[in-house]
């Protein structure tokens, strides 16, 4: 594997999930695989889970890991082709990415969408420039449109918690938030569930339709109560509007998941990628209750990252 930016980079989804399960049971078995190999993790945005779990994954495989907060510690980056750099930017991505590529064998990059220009975000301009100029295998640590390491951890978590080996009903349920939030986690989750052995229903208020390319295998409804009926898993997430790009269209009153809303589900397990705003996106009673899987998801991030890094190390 030389690129891990979406589900389309995964040749066999079932095998990758099995690999993650195997690594969870045997985290240090491949400690010599990454010897003398350097993993560079580049962040243009904040992170707790992705930063720590991906570092841990690299270390479990014996890699040297270096982390850079490029937005705060690097020179101000220019990304425009042909720019006359007489303003605030100091270094072009062409040199910056190429230099980092020289120091690293595998590079991970986090760069959120700006949520201003939909074409710019959905063309994944920054991620694609990194792929082009580092010339090294690239792992997305959440890009403008997707969060594939999160989705792999989510799929593993669902597999571990499926009641009685049945084909589960999984509901992606929009939640309120006070700020415009990327569509990445929702896009990616829908895209991955679309390829997994689950029935996916997506529910959100009017105006929050995700791009068609991610939701082709899903049933979509604006009726949350109907969507939740019989659910085995509820994946809670806020996202800003895709159609009215980057906008918050409603305060989402009544959309927050509560214990009352779990009645009528199949004692549904509740998921969220974290960070979560308590009592805005998700109620205390759900997060502190028995049905929450949020910490299991976060734990599985390590083994998802480790499975991907192992495949990349094997292909170096
Ligand atoms: C980010 C998002 O939803 O894309 C990162 C989640 C992993 N969350 C926030 O910006 C709060
Ligand atoms: N879920 C997730 O990616 O969290 P961080 O933003 O803290 O990395």
Describe this protein's structure.
This protein is of the alpha/beta class and 316 residues long. The chain has helices at residues 13-25, 49-60, 70-73, 93-103, 118-122, 125-134, 148-161, 184-193, 224-228, 259-262, 284-287, 294-314, and strands spanning 3-4, 38-43, 64-69, 77-78, 91-92, 106-110, 138-140, 169-174, 199-203, 218-221, 233-237, 269-271. The chain is built from twelve helices and twelve strands. Strand 8 (169-174), helix 8 (184-193) and strand 9 (199-203) form a beta-alpha-beta unit. Helix 1 (13-25) crosses helix 12 (294-314) and helix 7 packs across helix 12. The termini are close together. N-acetyl-L-norvaline (AN0) is lined by residues 142, 181-182, 184-185, 273, 275. Pathway: Amino-acid biosynthesis; L-arginine biosynthesis. Residues 8-160 form the Aspartate/ornithine carbamoyltransferase carbamoyl-P binding domain. InterPro entries: ArgF'-like (IPR043696), Asp/Orn_carbamoyltranf_P-bd (IPR006132), Asp/Orn_carbamoylTrfase (IPR006130), Asp/Orn_carbamoylTrfase_sf (IPR036901), Asp_carbamoyltransf_Asp/Orn-bd (IPR006131).
- Mean model confidence by pLDDT: 97
Q: Which hetero ligands occur in this complex?
A: N-acetyl-L-norvaline, phosphoric acid mono(formamide)ester
**Helix/strand structural class:** alpha/beta
Beta strand %: 15-25%
Helix-strand pattern, N to C?
EHEHEHEEHEHHEHEHEEHEHEHH
Radius of gyration (Å): 20 Å
Low-pLDDT sequence parts: none
End-to-end C-alpha gap = 9 Å
Strand segment tally:
12
Strand order of the largest sheet: 1-7-6-2-3
Shape: globular
Helix count equals 12
Helix content: 25-40%
Main sheet: strands, sense, barrel:
5 strands, parallel
């Amino acid at each position: 594997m030389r690129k891990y930016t979406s589900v389309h980079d995964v040749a066999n989804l079932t095998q990758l999930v099995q690999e993650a399960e195997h690594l969870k049971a045997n985290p240090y078995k491949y400690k010599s695989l990454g010897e003398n190999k350097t993993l560079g993790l580049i962040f243009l945005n904040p992170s707790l889970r992705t930063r720590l779990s991906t570092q841990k994954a690299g270390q479990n495989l014996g890699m040297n890991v270096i982390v850079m907060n490029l937005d705060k510690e690097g020179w101000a980056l220019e990304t425009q082709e042909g720019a006359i750099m007489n303003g605030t930017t100091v270094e072009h991505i062409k040199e910056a990415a190429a230099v980092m590529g020289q120091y690293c064998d595998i590079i991970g990059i986090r760069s959120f969408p700006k949520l201003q220009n939909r074409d710019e975000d959905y063309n994944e301009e920054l991620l694609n420039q990194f792929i082009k100029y580092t010339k090294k295998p690239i792992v997305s640590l959440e890009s403008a449109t997707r969060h594939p390491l999160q989705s792999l951890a989510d799929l593993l978590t669902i597999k571990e918690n499926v009641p009685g080996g049945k084909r589960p009903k999984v509901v992606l349920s929009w939640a309120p938030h006070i700020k415009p939030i990327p569509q990445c986690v929702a896009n990616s989750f829908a895209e991955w569930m679309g390829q997994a052995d689950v029935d996916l229903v997506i529910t959100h208020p009017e105006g929050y339709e995700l791009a068609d390319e991610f939701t082709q295998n899903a049933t979509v409804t604006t009726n949350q109560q109907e969507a939740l009926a019989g659910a085995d898993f509820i994946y809670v997430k806020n996202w800003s509007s895709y159609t009215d790009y980057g906008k918050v269209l409603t305060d989402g009153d009544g959309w927050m998941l509560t214990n009352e809303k779990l009645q009528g589900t199949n004692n549904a397990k509740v998921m969220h990628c974290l960070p979560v705003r308590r009592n805005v996106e998700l109620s205390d009673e759900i997060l502190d209750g028995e049905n929450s899987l949020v910490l299991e998801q976060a734990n599985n991030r390590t083994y998802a990252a480790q499975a991907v890094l192992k495949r990349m190390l094997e292909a170096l």
